[in-house]
Each structure stands twice: as C-alpha cells, then as structure tokens.
Amino acid sequence: MSVGMLVLAAILARCGGAAARAGQKPDPLLRVLGGVLSAGGAWLLAASAGAWSPCWPALALGFIAGVADLLPQRRFIRPFSDGLVVVVAGLLSTPAVPLFALSMSVVLAVGLGLVIDRALKRLAVIWRGVLVGIPVAAVALAVVLKIDDLRTFAGWYGSRTHQVGVTFAQPGERVTLSTGTVAYFARPDVAGPVPGAVLFHGAHRDGARQAAACVFRRALLQAGVAVLSVDHPGFGASPAPSISYPIEEWDPLPAAQAALAALRDRVGQQRIILVGHSLGAIDVFRLLADGADVDGAIVAGTGIGDITPTEDYWYAIFNEPRRLDPWMPRDKWRALNDRYYMPAVFIERILPDRYPMLFVRLGSERLAARPFRTAAWAALPQPKQACTLTYATHNFTAIGEAGLILGETSVTRDLADQVALFVREVHLLPR
Predict the structure, then answer these.
(1) Across-strand partners of 174?
(2) Euclidean distance between CA atoms 263 and 295, whole angstroms
(3) Residue 335 CA from chain centroid, whole number
C-alpha cells in the first residue's frame, strides 16, 4: 500500500510537471516549475524502489531541466532528466540501492514521462491549473495535517529542509521466532560473511516498522551489518500475552534471547552486537545483564531516573502501543514494570570490561530528557564511548504515517558513520 501511494504521488507530480509546460507559448517560470515537479515525481519513484535520499539533488536537477526546457530542441530533456533523478537518488540513498533494483523505476520514469508529455501537450489552460495545483495542494495539506510532528524536525523551517527524504518502511524478510515473536531480517548488499545486529525498537505500536527503527536499520545496513529487527511482544506483528496471565508470561527476555539465537543461525560465527533505541535499550541491558554471548552494544534515547512524577504517562505508554483493551490493572503494571522495565537494575548487573558500548546522544532531543540520558551514561560500565548526532530528535528526526517514512536523511548517514566506526573499533569489520 505504501509503495502504491508513492507511485501515485509520483504520477500526480509528473502530470503537474507536464501540465506546467503544456501549451505553445513557453513561460520560463512555468517551465522551471514543471521541471521541479517532474523531478519530484522521479524522486518519489526512486523512493518506491527503496531509496532514502535527500530531496535537494532532485530539486537541483529539476531546476536545470526546467531551464533546459526553454531550448528549441527539448523533446527528450524531461524524460531523460527524470531517469537521471532516479539513478542519482538511488546512489545517494542510505544504504545505496543497486542499479538493477532501480531499473523498473527508471523505465517507468522515462516511459511515463513520454506518455504524459504527449497526452497533455495541448491541454486546456483550466486543466493545466488543476493538474499543477494538485501536487502543490497535496504537499500543503500534508504539512497542515502533520504540523506538530513536522515541528520536531531539527531545522524543518530552516537550512536543513533540503536533506528531507521519503521512503516506505521495509524491515526485511519476516521471521517468526520460537516464542511466536515476529522479527525481520535484512542483509547489506555485499558479498561474503557479514557481522550481525539484533535491533530492538522504541515504544511505538508499529514496532520494527516505526520511523526510528527504520532509520537505525538503514544505518546498520549502510555500515555493512546484517540486521534482525524484533517486534517487542505486543508491538507490531508480535502478539501480547493476555492481561489475565501471570506477570512471568510478560517477561520479554525469552523473545530477546530467541532473536539472538535466530540471528546466530543466520550469520554463523560472525560477531554480533545488540542495538536498542529507547524502550529497546532496556532489552539490550537485560541481555547484557544476563551474560549474552555478544561482542558489543549500541544504545540511543535511553535514560534512568524516577518515573513517579509521570506515572500516568508511562502507564499509557505501556498500554496504548500494545493496543490493550481493557488496560492492564495499574497495580499489576507497576509490579511488571519494576521487574522487567527498569533499566537501572539491569545496568548495575552488567559486568565491567566485557561489552564495548556506544552511547548515542541525540542533539535535538527535548531538554527535559537530558538529565535521564546523563544518568544512564554515568551508570554504564566501561568500556564505553559516546557520540552526538547534532540534528537528531528522539526519533532520529523522522516520522511515520501509513507505512511511509519522512525524515532528515543526513541523520541516517551520520548515524551510519558512527556505527561503522564503532564496529571497526571492536573488530566487527575489517579495516
């Protein structure tokens, strides 16, 4: 469905681009607008093939194509430039999309462009206005509907807008673990054996398909690491126990252990790290405290501190993403939370000098969260190191809606660079 939405949006943008250049009298402004709209459609086609790339190359190429469209011999300029946009978007994606995977999008961009240009060549003025207005209005409507989420983007209204990308959530090959928990396996596009990572997501009902998890997965793949993304019990496609079951049935550790075993079966003797964001960091700490046979860990968006002042918030965070109806009784939730979801307890049990750890600081996260992050960093045992993603919010400056991911692609690239550096330092990848 999300891929279809991207293709439909691409067709609308391409129709708008063709409509802007229709007619016998060349209008420079309309020609440039048409070039930008057409390039935007090609960029969306690349996204439908899995590309996660910034919008600025497409806009630049569209502007150039719009200017070139004023030349006398211009028949094939727009379709050719559309195909070029798809290729460039695939190459600049994080991770890069293989050219063979882009081939269908290139053919569609060029062929669709030729057909639409020919069909709309002599379009009436009123219909030209309608077709140009549809993609513009759609973008404006999306901004209005998601205005609160868009404000979380670092620099959304400033100098970082050119780094925005769009794609669809693609966690990988679905795997059902021995516990019934659902996970997804994805491997980087490289030959030979590769190290692996078990990725645990934050507290969002989409589980491994949430925006932050998609960003982290792409960063790991870009760094050359195979990823098994786990839907925490009750999130995503993983079933939750009944609220009538005893607390022991709600223990997430067996699912995490099953995920680690499943990844071990896939990567063999290659080294494995644990990766956790927000709620997922607790899964990482729990496995490390349990003495898991892994070679390191990466955590982001985690903290420790007293949750009593905001107990109602955390009570809702437990029940709503798991879609529990009715909600778990509060007393039972307190007991369960104290036993399985208190990171400080598990951090204290992690053996020092055993697990190298990378602590990712999110530079554009809300200020109120920073004392909890600082406390978690101080409590973690050595060896540890920290890095800061300057433009990253708590969800890595990305939002998700209807299976689509919108966010700042530079954050993903910066995270991939830090991951690659860390795994080299702990000898997970060759230098």
Answers:
(1) 184
(2) 13
(3) 33
d(CA 174, CA 386): 32
CA 101 to chain centroid = 19
Q: Contact, 393 vs 365, CB < 8 A?
A: yes
**Cα separation of 203 and 233, whole Å?**
11
Bigger pLDDT: 29 or 151?
29
Q: Give the integer Cα–Cα distance in Å for 119 and 163.
A: 33
Q: If DSSP codes are grouped into helix, strand and coil, which group holds residue 264?
A: helix
**In what side-by-side order are the strands of the sheet with 164-168?**
164-168, 404-408, 398-401
Annotated domain spans of the chain: 2-145, 167-425
Residues 6 or more apart in contact with residue 225 via CB below 8 angstroms = 188, 194, 195, 196, 197, 273, 419, 423, 428, 429
- DSSP E strands in 100-195: the ranges are 164-168, 173-176, 182-186
Contact 18, 118 (CB under 8 A): no
For residue 413, count CB atoms less than 10 angstroms from its CB and return exposed for 0-12, middle for 13-18, buried for 19 or more.
buried
| DSSP one-letter code for 367 | G
The CA radius of gyration of the chain, in Å to the nearest whole number, is 24
Fold entry, domain 167-425: Rossmann fold (3.40.50)
For residues 318 and 287, the answer to whether their CB atoms sit within 8 Å is no
Residue 261, number of CB atoms within 10 A of its CB = 12
Helical residues (DSSP H) of 146-198, grouped into ranges: 147-150
Can you tell me the distance from the alpha carbon of 423 to that of 224, in angstroms, rounded to the nearest whole number? 10
d(CA 87, CA 93): 10
> CA dihedral in degrees (69, 70, 76, 77; nearest 10)?
-40
Please choose, from the candidates 137, 157, 160, the residue with its C-alpha nearest in 3D space to the C-alpha of residue 147: 157
State how far the Cα of 16 lies from the Cα of 66, in Å rounded to an integer. Answer: 13
pLDDT tens, residue by residue, 416-426: 999 999 998 87
User: Are the CB atoms for 55 and 93 separated by under 8 Å?
Assistant: no
| Single-letter code of the amino acid located at 83 | G
Percent share of the chain, pLDDT over 70: 86
What predicted TM-score, i.e. pTM, was given to this entire model? Answer: 0.90
Average pLDDT score, the chain:
86
For residues 376 and 304, is the Cβ–Cβ distance under 8 A? yes
Omega of the bond prior to 171 within 30 degrees of 0, cis? no
